[in-house]
Write a structure and sequence with these properties.
Strand content: 15-25%
Largest sheet: 6 strands, parallel
Number of helices: 6
Number of domains: 1
Structural class: alpha/beta
Radius of gyration: 16 Å
Helix content: 25-40%
Distance between the termini: 40 Å
Strand order of the largest sheet: 3-2-4-5-1-6
Low-confidence stretches: none
């Protein structure tokens, strides 16, 4: 009997959605599984997890963003990069080469009108049976939640940033 993959969502306004997904990535890699990480919105940068990922076999990592979208003047360019990134994600999902695919910050694509939600849902529904997919990002759309097997919401109780403490290497990036 072929294993049934899952769709898992880590959403909410708290810190740790990507970190939670990475915990599952390392679990899968520990079992010799093949993993694909696709990061939307986040731009290039020397994030610790990316640096470490370069040293790991069975892990393909793609950056499909230019940085968090705050500049309205570059919104068309951000949308184009998101569309190209999702085309890559759809290809990697359909390839049936992976045991786990992480779509980091995917929730922003429909929420920012970068991609129609129907296109994303269609791709998720067509995934290979055995493939597990993790979606991260704030404000997971209802359509994603309904499709998912597991949804976790991470909420802020207290955050160092609220106290004026800046992001630190090895903790936030």
């Amino acid at each position: 009997m072929e294993k049934k993959g899952r769709i898992i969502i880590h959403t909410g306004n708290g810190k740790g959605k990507t970190t939670a997904a990475l915990g599952t990535v390392f679990r899968a890699l520990g079992h010799g599984q093949k993993v694909c990480m696709i990061q939307f919105i986040k731009g290039q940068g020397k994030y610790g997890e990316r640096l470490f990922a370069e040293t790991i076999d069975n892990l393909d990592w793609y950056i499909c963003g230019k940085g968090f979208v705050f500049n309205k003047e570059q919104i068309d360019e951000d949308k184009e990069v998101a569309e190209e990134g999702f085309a890559l994600a759809a290809d990697r999902i359909a390839s049936d080469c992976y045991d786990l695919v992480v779509l980091d910050e995917l929730t922003y694509l429909p929420n920012l009108d970068f991609l129609p939600i129907e296109k994303i849902v269609e791709t998720l529904k067509a995934k290979p049976q055995r493939l597990s997919i993790i979606i991260t990002g704030r404000d997971a759309p209802t359509e994603f939640v309904e499709l998912a097997d597991t949804v976790s919401e991470i909420v802020v109780v207290k955050h160092a940033f609220q106290q004026g403490i800046k992001a630190q290497k090895g903790v936030e990036f």
